[in-house]
Amino acid sequence: xxxxxxxxxxxxxxxxxxxxxxxxxxxxxxxxxxxxxxxxxxxxxxxxxxxxxxxxxxxxxxxxxxxxxxxxxxxxxxxxxxxxxxxxxxxxxxxxxxxxxxxxxxxxxxxxxxxxxxxxxxxxxxxxxxxxxxxxxxxxxxxxxxxxxxxxxxxxxxxxxxxxxxxxxxxxxxxxxxxxxxxxxxxxxxxxxxxxxxxxxxxxxxxxxxxxxxxxxxxxxxxxxxxxxxxxxxxxxxxxxxxxxxxxxxxxxxxxxxxxxxxxxxxxxxxxxxxxxxxxxxxxxxxxxxxxxxxxxxxxxxxxxxxxxxxxxxxxxxxxxxxxxxxxxxxxxxxxxxxxxxxxxxxxxxxxxxxxxxxxxxxxxxxxxxxxxxxxxxxxxxxxxxxxxxxxxxxxxxxxxxx
Length: 403
Description:
Elements: H1 9-26, E1 36-40, E2 44-47, E3 50-54, H2 67-80, H3 88-92, H4 95-107, E4 112-116, H5 119-130, E5 136-140, H6 145-154, E6 157-161, H7 166-175, E7 182-187, H8 199-208, E8 212-216, H9 231-235, E9 243-247, E10 257-261, H10 263-272, H11 274-277, H12 284-299, H13 302-321, E11 332-338, H14 340-351, E12 355-356, E13 359-360, E14 370-375, H15 382-398
Parallel strand pairs: 3-12, 5-6, 5-7, 7-8, 8-9
Antiparallel strand pairs: 1-2, 2-3, 4-10, 9-10, 11-14, 13-14
């Protein structure tokens, strides 16, 4: 096929994207896929040879480079090598995988846990394995793409309720047939907005309408609760969630995803979910790093307190400057810019002041709600945060977002 002379839908999609990327690069507005040359303590990074304050990392507790975690990863390489060369079901399971899953189950107060090679694969596989044709799945309007894709892949009747609107969710549950399997699924902390799901009401509705409840804790693990164990601790509502999903690549400085649940649910997923059966096992170093990270969170509770203090400083400071940060109350802080080009321009101005933030634009968020999606961590010093806010304020005034 002559790509240049083809005018089918695929060619048009590719051209539209490449044209957009070319325009942004030509106007110093493209900041995606920048290689980080070095991480310095979780709060700073070297990019293009410049040390920059890091405000785009998901290392909420600043555990990247933690000596205990690094040591555990190196020890695992010495013991097991760098890979497993197999899937978990056959020759790929190592003792460190079992140790990690036991650690997760204990941390999340469940009977068992299962790990996958990525958070995306976890949601995609778990939802599509549990649900099927004739079932009903109910998803928050702004749930993560991996949840949406899992719901679509399942073939179940897919119903989306307005964001964090429990009245709308109840209406959808009420209208679903009483005798079908139902699953309600939501992020605990929403990855673009930073707000928290109304878990108490959601648990109440799932009990009332006999629905399973699955919560994605990608951005609440290590963030919510005094001990950082997540949304159940935050609301003091243990046992209300049937399927506790999370990632090993944000607060936990590794890679992968997990589900913590009752033993029979985990056993079912081990023998039925395709992403577990047909994907190579987590590399030993990554499994060991994740295993140690959960222990560090419990051993160093000061990190959660520090994160909370930094979060309040960052959100409060930006609001006082006149920025719209939506309803966030967590370390994810959206700085609303409006149209896509303004978000790109804000990024350019802020990065030129050595503050590493990134834009999120349509279709990842609704048109007109493009934003800087800034994150703060426990590794930031108060003076670092003040500098970042000053850079954002200067850019906002220059571009007319604030006065």
